[in-house]
Amino acid sequence: MNADDLPKLRDELEAHGLWANKGLGQHFLLDLNISRRIARVAGDLAGRAVIEVGPGPGGLTRALLEAGAVVTAIEKDARFLPLLEPLIAWSEGRLRIVHGDALQADEAALLNGSRAAIISNLPYNVGTPLLVKWLKADAWRGDMTLMFQKEVAERIVAKPGSDAYGRLAVLAQAQCACRLEFVVPSRAFTPPPKIASAIVRLTDLAMPYADLDALERVTAAAFGQRRKMLRSALRALTPNAEALLLKAGLPPTARAEEIDQTGFRALADAWRANAA
Ligand code: SAM
Q: Residue of the nearest CA to atom 14 in ligand 1?
């Protein structure tokens, strides 16, 4: 099966009278070579269940199906459904299209107990909340290969001491090994967004941190005032910030951007013990 045999995506958009709705973060990848490269980053997809959010005209969907994946595609914009429909027959039934908002989707129910990778060129306006939702997901979620705005991608993979290091890095790296795979220039999209995009691959850690909600609370306070020392910044969380830091084994004069994954895990543990 070869996606080159399908009608060109640009012709399909024209034939269906479709244009990009910026409110839904629509920037389409019409170059199948880039979509194929994204699919390759995700590893061997033959027979694997995949969730794709926002198939739009279906460029990435074509590449995923060509690689042998069994795809559940969730699309909010009903205008694209007739254009995607022929891919069901082309893939011999390996595509299911769900019309809805991915933020509200119950993926475990959609997958009926099976585990799925997530591979998506995400809508920019909801990329971060979707990632946080999936980081908190239970056993249904497998590896993730996701396209974000380049700046967001850099924040996900950032290390302590860098400007990009913050809540998103701590939360993502508490669950996953995170790697920025490659940058996609804005000219590759129709219409081109203002900034470049990048693909991030997130693979589950052997020892993820169990209580992401606790980690969210401590990172919100710590990075809420990232230039301040933690003994001041953490007052948003507790009046006994110094005692909390002592319990976590962290210096009260440190700043959030200096604290690594181990430090934040210790802080979240200490806060949970206090809150209990
Ligand atoms: N995958 C296509 C591609 O690579 O050309 C389109 C990517 S475009 C950046 C994002 C897609 O997500 C659009 O099709 C848009 O309609 C859809 N979308 C936006 N918000 C959504 C949501 N909350 N749930 C599901 N799909 C959404």
A: 56
Beta-sheet pairing, 189-190 with 141-149: unpaired
Residues with CB under 6 A from ligand 1: 24-29, 53-57, 59-60, 74-77, 101-103, 121, 123, 126
Indicate the Cα dihedral angle 212, 213, 214, 219, nearest 10°. 80
Let me know whether 99 and 230 are in one domain.
no
pTM above 0.85, yes or no: yes
Q: Which CATH number fits the domain that encloses residue 252?
A: 1.10.8.100
Q: Which residue segment(s) compose the domain that 248 sits in?
A: 212-275
Phi, psi for 25 (deg, rounded to 5) = 65, 35
CB 176 within 8 A of CB 203: yes
CA of 57 to the centre of ligand 1 (A): 9
- 1 Cα: distance to centroid of ligand 1 (angstroms): 25
CB 244 within 8 A of CB 233: no
- Confidence class of residue 258 from pLDDT cuts 50, 70 and 90? very high
Q: What SS3 class is residue 48?
A: coil
> Are the CB atoms for 72 and 116 separated by under 8 Å?
yes
173 and 220 fall within a common domain: no
Residue 276: which pLDDT band, with cuts at 50, 70 and 90?
A: low
Measure 76 CA to ligand 1 centroid, in angstroms: 7
Q: Whose CA is nearest to atom 19 of ligand 1?
A: 24
Residues β-bridged to residue 189: 29
